[in-house]
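[audit] Reproducing an earlier prediction to check determinism. Same input, same settings, fresh worker. If the tokens differ from the archived copy the diff job will pick it up downstream; this log only records the rerun itself.
[audit] input (299 residues):
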Amino acid sequence: MSKFNYIIGIILLIGILGGAKVIAGTSEKTISNVPYATVSPAQVMDIYLPEGEGPFPVVVLIHGGAFKMGDKGMETLNAEALVAKGYAAASINYRLSGEAIYPAQIEDCKAAVRFLRANATKYHLNPDKIGSWGASAGGNLSAMLGTSSGVAELEGASLGNAGVSSKVIAAVDWFGPINFCTMDAEATAVGFTGRTNGEYSPESQLIGKAVQSAPELVAKVNPTTYITADDAAFFIQVGSKDRNIPYTQSRNFYEAVKKILGNEKVSFELLEGAGHGGPQFFDPSNVAKVIAFFEKHLK
């Protein structure tokens, strides 16, 4: 394991343990480990509900971790921020790359959305007001939810609720990888050398083969591939000092989506000095920007 992956693993472990403590201390409005499919033990979610009768708009939270690590407990603080503003939140686990290669991950995300929509009455949710929010690997999956509605090969219909839509109407992408094939070149172009998206990179592990040897498969993991005029609204943020995923990945995706959806539905922010996540993203003033985006599109 590289030094980078070791550090990321420690950070993720802290997030998991910290999240678990918070979940244990929440009110009866948090419903833990709800299965949304039955193929894998990973297919569970925690549902956070605000006070009141609803129906509540709901945001699906998708954790990061290079597609191979992480846990839904890492999203507890974002869930609590949403609940405080009258949203329900569903923080999901999904099959990681060590268990199943792509498209299992987006299939799980779509199955989770379908489950929430199919069970909206049970959980006091508004089935017409579903959004998504993810960081890093979760940012990619949130973006995929935002653009790939109705793409049959990514639906995973056998996971359940096949007749229900997996569409989200608002998606937040925090520094998600977009085009795996160009990440190294883009990193070099913005002055960050040493990045190698080789045979054992997280992206290669996700698709089950070296990224550079499989451009057609890589295209299927790229949310840009699926952009259409009826896609979700987007809020995209990335740090200018992100050494893991060059900020141009997010900026290029923004430009592509904006070209089809226009300025009213798509916004982008480069956080100067921020890295791959960190305090600038989780500062209350920045989380408030995310909430304001959902206020515009989900309420």
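[audit] rerun output stored. Observation attached for the diff report: The two ends are 45 Å apart (CA to CA).
[audit] end
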